[in-house]
Amino acid sequence: MAKNPVRVLVTGAAGQIGYAIVPMIARGVMLGPDQPVILHMLDIEPAAEALNGVKMELIDAAFPLLKGVVATTDAQEACKDVNIAVMVGGFPRKEGMERKDVMSKNVSIYKAQASALEKHAASDVKVLVVANPANTNALILKEYAPKIPEKNITCLTRLDHNRALGQISEKLNVHVGDVKNVIIWGNHSSTQYPDVNHATVTTSSGEKPVRELVANDQWLNTEFITTVQQRGAAIIKARKLSSALSAASSACDHIRDWVLGTPKGTWVSMGVYSDGSYGIQQGLIYSFPVTCDKGQWSIVQGLKIDDFSRGKLDATAKELIEEKTLAYSCLS
Ligand SMILES: NC(=O)C1=CN([C@@H]2O[C@H](COP(=O)(O)OP(=O)(O)OC[C@H]3O[C@@H](n4cnc5c(N)ncnc54)[C@H](O)[C@@H]3O)[C@@H](O)[C@H]2O)C=CC1
Ligand SMILES: O=C([O-])CC(=O)C(=O)O
Fold first, then answer.
1. Residues 29 and 129 in one domain
2. Which of 141, 175, 231, 250 is the most exposed place for a label (fewest CB within 10 A)?
3. CA 218 / ligand 2 centre spacing (Å)
4. Domain of life of the organism in this record (predicted)?
5. Within this chain, do residues 168 and 267 fall inside the same structural domain, yes or no?
């Protein structure tokens, strides 16, 4: 029997990531090739015409799984009965703007959209915040939508995770699909800590630790980390636009694994509400290694954290605490 359609909201749908992600969702990349979807697309009034253009293209693409499209500038209408919400809409930093100005605009947007989601979305809606500052926007959304379970509000660090897999694959000249269990700890910012201490590569003679195969701790502890931390900036420099196809693809990976589960023996990175694991204070949205089963994520426990890693985990937590303080000062 055919499945009932799942309603998927994409905010900022007329933007770059929006344009890349909606055809992926309509093709089953996010929820599977047998899962019909109804797309809800939200953008703001100045982008209404462009948003309608995206809707026209979705109709023209004749996707068999796409059972309906809602394209609107009304947040309440956009959020109505949605099961999945991918929050991409936001205010980008413009020349001359201070970090506080960007933070102020975005936390106000996320406060308002939290209320629309809480009132109108399905009670078990799963939320993924992509727009920057992603962790702090997600935290604000959580605080202002108290009826949405905190476990249902996450932010995207899967792009950083995939970037780390990509760098190891390039370094070792192995297929990216054979590399697993890297970790992104902390903030989706340049303080994030890409950690390979538990990562492995599947080889013809079994699974081998990445550290052993790379055999270059100097590279792993310096250049590898900064390359992943700075990859977003490198893409902006090269494209004069920020990452869109990789961000869209990683957002699909995030939701797919969350809903359909992670493969046995594999974890992924997700920005989730800290429960105090690994000494990270509660009350932050922090990226941890997680496994997913039956629509629920769980933080991977018991990984050994050496002194080098401890310092990095704490430094990115410190930045998130500062962002949280700044966000609240913008809202007060
Ligand atoms: N977490 C991650 O890994 C990544 C995050 N990003 C972030 O994703 C966000 C979107 O990036 P792009 O698509 O490249 O930007 P973009 O500027 O092309 O698109 C953003 C869209 O959001 C819309 N928007 C603005 N305010 C809105 C509101 N209140 N409600 C609904 N829509 C609204 C804009 O009109 C625009 O269409 C940015 O904040 C970017 O920094 C980008 C790449 C990776
Ligand atoms: O900095 C940006 O706007 C883009 C971004 O988050 C990334 O590519 O990781």
1. yes
2. 175
3. 26
4. Eukaryota
5. yes
